[in-house]
Amino acid sequence: MINVLFVCLGNICRSPMAEALFRNLVKKERLTNKIAVDSAATSSWQVGFPPHEGTLDILKKHKIPSDGLIGRKLKKEDFRRFDYIIGMDESNLKNIYRITSKTNHPKIIRLLDLTKYRKDVPDPFFTGDFDETYRLVSAGCRALLYKIRSEHYL
User: Where does the record place the catalytic residues (predicted)?
Assistant: First the structure.
């Protein structure tokens, strides 16, 4: 099983959106028996909470299931468990490195580095623009799935 973890600051906006989007892509491609998906936060502020209403609304708008999404904090052990740890922005990457004690490891990737955008995914908790976040996360998830399929011959 290939394990993918999406990470953002609070695990209520970007990373659960990416988890739901990616899980939906994996299901559509009939790869659920090969790829598992989760998400986590670098902070503990929203542990145990569901995603932000804006995230749930945008997922619903695009008919993407949001079942089972609940905030949790990234743990050092996650580094061993996951094959791909995907941060939403540069700050997330620094926090992932700190929490996992792994700096610049190839399994830790900024999501949009896999796309033509090569920038941070803005946090809609602060910008309020869930549509832009959805568009960027969607592009990143498609690129990540392409990468995984290529690397694992799926």
Answer: 8 (nucleophile), 14, 123 (proton donor)
